[in-house]
Amino acid sequence: MAGALVTGGLLVPLFGIEGAGRAAGAALAVLCLPLLQVEARRLDRLRAWSDLLGTRLSPAGPYPGATWALVGLLLAAGAMHRLVSRGEGKIFAAPAYSETLLASVGGPGRYEFLEKPFPHYVRTTDAGKPGGAAFGSMPLAGDIEGYGGPLHLLMAVSEAGRILGLRLMESRETPAYIEGIEGWLGRFRGLDGTRPIRIGREIDALTGATVTSEAAARIVDRSAKAAADGVLGLKSERTPPGGAVRRAGSPRFWALALFLAAFFPVFLRGGRRARLAYLAGAAAIPGFYANTLFTLVDIHNLSEGHLPGLENPGWLLVAAFIAVTSLLWGAVFCGSVCPFGALQELLWEAGRSLGLRSEPSPGLAGRAGILRLLLLAAALGLAWATGRRGWISFEPMQHIFLLKTGTLTGILIAAVLAGSAAYFRFWCRFLCPTGAVLALANKLALARGAARRRDLSRCAYGVRSEFDATCIQCQHCIQRAPPGASGT
Fold first, then answer.
1. In whole angstroms, how far apart are CA 389 and each of 71, 91, 212, 253, 483?
2. What distance in Å separates the CA atoms of residue 331 and residue 32, rounded to the nearest whole number?
3. Which of 91, 221, 236, 327 has its CA 20 to 30 A from that of 229?
4. Nearest-CA neighbor of 162 among 208, 207, 105?
5. DSSP string covering 85-124, please?
6. What is the rounded CA–CA span in Å between residue 453 and residue 291?
7. Would the CA dihedral through 393, 395, 396, 398 be positive or negative?
8. In the Cβ-directed half-sphere of 233, how many Cα atoms lie within 13 Å?
9. Which of 203, 190, 184, 201 is nearest to 157 (CA)?
10. Residue ranges of the domains in the chain?
């Protein structure tokens, strides 16, 4: 009865019938998370599962009961966000922009809303003359995606079809990637919207955001032409094919693909030197060169059902790699492929050679392990509740490989890198919210039994169990283990 009341009175009004089913399934899956946190001896009624999974049911964190509180907070924040986003999402289907907002892109005047041939505002200047039109891009180019998903632009064109102004209303891009985008959008002002608008020809890309820049240019090009043809009675020139972003054949994509393919021999059979070389490659290729990362912003986007399209094949390749390798071996992405983790470990190796190596007390390290779970819950919860993506943009990895940081971010990065010279994977171990999510894969690790034996007696990361959810699969324990050493 209670379940029916919750479903009919809360879930269906919020999500619809289909969405209610998905929400119920997601809630059930989330509520199963505490099973990852409890000790096997407490599962008296699940002895069959305990026999099957063995050490996989060992505690995954220092405070197992805290999982329930975190789950409750996240579900409450998710429900609040859903309520808020239902109202905010209407702007995409039926735009309702204020006079002030419209004037910010089209200039002062009177704006009259019309629904045909697409939702737009006809502008009349203060002198009573026609002043062009203003409109949102989603009804015209909602299928064009940037790095993280669709871009919602508000734009205005003159009676002659020239672009008067642009404004980014909403996106799912990593905030650090699109820093300065408002100024960059100003470069479109004055361009002839009836002619082709392309990155590299009519306008240069925003530094560090090539995919997003090309998507924005395609959105402006298509939307301006639709307004010119359908509203202003002009005749626009067709943009030549090839404007779509297809990077599967680019050097960056192939470098990333070859780097990920090299993971398997290095992980399965490589020694210490091969691993160090691969870590250097991780910082260089997916980090500085391809700048293809998996961060808390991506987790937030996925939690809301947004998956980047084919416009970003590099990210899709990395996501597929994470899914497959996590299912097989656990959090190997964290231990070998993550660019920021690799940078930290290389600094630790350098610090060790200089005698800087240090270890926190086991008790302190164990208690501090919950910090990244708290950061994860706080960041996602606040982002869902407020709709502000700044809450999920604090990770050093989102900034360091762009070589541009603010003052506070720069201080955080410097502190983390300094700590990493003395403590193994300082950020990963205590603060990384993305790693807190990927670490749950250690409880699956279907192919872990086929791995070489491990010696965990001197693990620099503080791992004490083969299926410990904090393990990043760095393979140091395997490299040290003598033949026939025990795996637990």
1. 21, 18, 17, 27, 49
2. 20
3. 91
4. 105
5. HHHHTHHHHS----HHHHHHHH-SSEEEEE-SSSSEEEEE
6. 34
7. negative
8. 3
9. 190
10. 2-90, 95-230, 251-480
Place of tokens 């283990």: 481
Phi, psi dihedrals of residue 146, rounded to the nearest 5°: -90, -150
Give 112's strand partners.
122
Please name which of 307, 283, 419 lies closest in space to residue 359, comparing C-alpha atoms: 419
- Label residue 343 left, alpha or beta by phi (over 0 means left) and psi (-120 to 50 means alpha): alpha
| 168, β-bridge pairs | 153
Residue 23 carries which side chain, given as an amino acid letter?
Answer: A
The amino acid sitting at 418 is A
- 369 three-state secondary structure: coil
Residues 6+ apart with CB under 8 A from 84: 385, 387
The type of residue at 80 is M
Backbone angles phi, psi at 331, to 5 degrees: -80, 55
pTM: 0.71
Which of 422, 398, 402 is CA-nearest to residue 412? 398
